[in-house]
Request: fold
Amino acid sequence: MKQIKYILLLLMFGLLIDGHAQKTTNVILENSETLSFDKARGESFQVLKGNVRFRQDRVTMFCDSAYFYDGKNSFDAFGHVRVVQPDSFTITCNKMFYDGNVQLLRARGNVVMDNNKFVLHTENFDYYKGKGYGYYFNGGKIIDPQYVLTSECGYYYPNEKKSSFKNKVKLVNTNVTIVSDTLLYDSKNETATLVGPSVLYYKDYTVNTKNGWANTKTNAGALYDYSVITSKDGKYVTADTILFNKTEGWAKAYHGLDMQDSTRNIIIRGDYGVFTENPRAGYVTKRPYMIKFAPKEDSLFLHADTLRFLEVDSTERLARAYNNVRFYRKDLQGKCDSLTYNSKDSVMQMFTDPIIWSEENQLTGDQIDVYLDSINPKMIHIKKNAMITSECEGAPEYFNQMSSKESKGYIIDNQIRKIDMIGNALSVYFPDEDGGGHSMVNKAEGSLMSIYLKNKKLEKIVMKPQPKGVLYPLSLIEKEELFLKGFKWQKDVRPVSKEDIFRHTK
Reply:
């Protein structure tokens, strides 16, 4: 009798199912091996056991057993729970609650969601089908053919193929590892957007940012708000905005560019920079300048309209500055139209109207080469039409002058100690007199002239071989004879501070 009664109940329930089948908003029970009622919980509370199957619209749900709240259009599912929406996703879990009225799914225990693109593993997952999103909390892992992502919580929007993740976010693929506070991911475009403190670990460098995005497939992206790029070889880069493409091997920086090379003690700054990996090169414009940093010595500050760099190999690097080149350090200042530097021989070459100032001396020529050790200048070589000029102390209308085909100045302890004027050496010199003042001028010439300085002042002049020299009273010599050919005093264009390197002069 009980069995007949149970069969009748099943038939009646089947009729109810058929009667509501056309209403797709209803949860439909399609199968169960047994069905019973719990009168203590109400007539609508049904206990289902064995191969239970529900359906709502295109979604089919399976489980071992369930509590079906027919009047509320909802149920609790237990054991081998599986949810299938064709061509969209599959969810498996230990237990689940489903509300058909709002299309809410709450999956708990060993939750796995497969959307044919990636697989989500978590313990707690809620899915609002009607609102088109789902989320997990208390930890989750997404496995994709291109990456693996973990986080404390995450939101998934299947229709849009977009996700957002929060707290202890970590994304790993073959190109990059991303650790972030908040990450937004577009699986269709394979683009990750970072919000909050984040670190991107590439093979050769890391990126620290609070605002940026990256394509995990192409390695293109953008960094904002003065993100920092640090390479394994000691380089540091930051700027307000950095665009990059790791695959294509380029990066562009905008506004507040700051690059530092700790191994070579070099800082480069400007408002626009472009860099490439192959070749390893770059240039900086828009008020660029370079600092050759010397912790215990005097730093060199250099500005030009454009700064260019090329890494030839691990030992050789080329640098070029051109248009309105000016540099400053306390013991040496300079100006020219263009300048090159080669790290292999540590030579700085100055072209087109180069000028160097050292203490009271002005050095000019067609080309000036400055030989450096790792930090300090050691020798200044004026290759053609060399001229050295200085004001007479206490008599600014008179100038000591020396000229020759070429010249070499030797620097010891950051001071010029000796200058060799080589080939057709000429001099105009105003000797100091007792009590000050100048009444005589010495004009001399020879093949070689050596000038010795001590404590920043002229100590002696040696000319050889067979020099010619005449000492004239100033009252008996024409004014134009007091100046050598090519004389030009250019004190007004001399950089007087590190800030003054930005002053444009003719």
In short: Residues 1-23 have pLDDT under 50 and may be disordered. The CA atoms of residues 17 and 135 lie 31 Å apart. The two ends are 114 Å apart (CA to CA).
